[in-house]
Amino acid sequence: MLTIVGSRQRQSRGASCQPVRSAPCGRRLRLPGTWIIHGETMKTASPRVLLKTSTDELFLPSRIVYHVWDEKELVTRLRQLRCMAFDRQGGRWTWNFEHEAKAMGFPAIYESGPAARQGVVLASGYLVDASTFHVYVRCVERLVRFLVFFDRAVSRSCAKAEFLDEFNLVTTVGPGEAIPAPEDFFRNEREFEFLDIEKEVRERRARGEDAAAWMQALTRRPLQARERHRMDLFYEDGLTSFQSNMQFRAMLAMKQHLEGRSIRPYDVIRELMESDQAGKNQFPLG
């Protein structure tokens, strides 16, 4: 079985993908544009390619919805940041891998990889109206770093993230297909399920209901393709908790893709716990 797990990305629209010819089995090869993992019996390549960023992260787009209290201050601050640029043709602000952004702890591939020669656009932001700023990112790694960067650069009294919209499935493309941009996944607001977890938990506890049981029931549902969440997890629970949540999100998306069937977060959590327990039993302390 062959699984394509990577591709290069054009800066302007996402990733450059192409089908791959067959190759000897049992080897891991690097071809221009793709990573290939070969299984035990492989004769022909898949006609579709798994989309990754130009810096080799899984393409898993997100949209951050910021509430803006002071549009003038926000624009002024964005203009002061050397890593932010206004694209008049696209009507957007771009967060670029340069100047202040280079201090955000990105992997070395951002500095020395193939994409570095063209420059990497890390995120795109649009002032939808005087009180709304939408930011689109291609992967969870850039999502986490942008949230931290923006929170440091712009006062929360000026603008603060209110919602996170997630597309939770991997994207594959075939020969000749257009490469999607993150914005393409968020055009229809009605497709997103809004999970106002904090509010729901408070209301259930106020009614004397078992909020924990309701939370567990959520994990027993199949992985949802499109979800909206409040940003409480980032602001109240902290960066470490949010980052772990995003890593789990990426793991779920990849696992569902590799298994070719719908999965439930509950089952994955249980598998991880059982694996962890088995490891402890294999190497007991004392």
What's this model, at a glance?
By secondary structure, the protein is of the alpha+beta class. The protein is 31% helix and 23% strand.
Write the layout of secondary structure elements.
Blueprint: E1 2-7, E2 28-31, E3 34-38, E4 49-50, E5 62-68, H1 71-80, E6 84-87, E7 92-96, H2 109-112, E8 121-129, E9 132-137, H3 140-153, E10 159-167, E11 172-173, E12 193-195, H4 197-206, H5 211-219, E13 226-230, H6 232-235, H7 239-259, H8 265-282
Parallel strand pairs: 12-13
Antiparallel strand pairs: 1-3, 2-3, 4-11, 5-9, 5-10, 6-7, 7-8, 8-9, 10-13
Question: Can you put this structure into words, describing what you see?
Answer:
By secondary structure, the protein is α+β, with helices and mostly antiparallel strands. The chain has eight helices and 13 strands. A hairpin with a 2-residue loop joins strand 2 and strand 3. The termini are far apart. The protein has two domains: 55 residues, no CATH class; 200 residues, no CATH class.
How would you state the average pLDDT, rounded?
Answer: 82
Q: Look at the helices and sheets and give the structural class.
A: alpha+beta
Order of helices and strands: EEEEEHEEHEEHEEEHHEHHH
Biggest sheet strand line-up: 6-7-8-9-5-10-13-12
Helix content: 25-40%
Number of helices: 8
The poorly predicted ranges are 1-44
Radius of gyration: 21 Å
Total beta-strand segments = 13
- How would you describe the shape? globular
